[in-house]
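Researcher: Can you fold this with zinc ion in place?
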Amino acid sequence: MDTRSFAPRRQKNRKSKPEDIKAVVARARQEQRKLEETYRERSLKIHPWVCARCGREFSAGNLHELTVHHKDHDHTHNPPDGSNWENLCIYCHENEHRRHLDHLEAKGMEVGGDQDSGFTHTPFASLKDMMKKE
Ligand SMILES: [Zn+2]
Ligand SMILES: [Zn+2]
């Protein structure tokens, strides 16, 4: 068997210009947005369009005010059965995060960055952190 035919083809260097940081940032941002849209969509499919806190009901017309919250505040934790997601209206969602921050501050923990993407949406937060470390 000729294994060489299975070897991945090396991409030709296009004038070997290093990819500039802007392109990298743009792509990372796009990836993150894609991920967010995916879990939001999934959560809205799994859970009813009702705020889990105040019970407000939503329809296609005001659905943008319904956000997806991560129960454990870890937005990388996205089990496909939706067990870490909760549909919350933007007000309850904000409350939830404020409570969580108060809780962390009370424990004297460092509070940093974007816990998940909801009402306070800062797609650059994690990138900024990454870049600071340079
Ligand atoms: Zn609510
Ligand atoms: Zn949240």
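Model: Folded with zinc ion in place. The beta strands are 66-70, 85-89.
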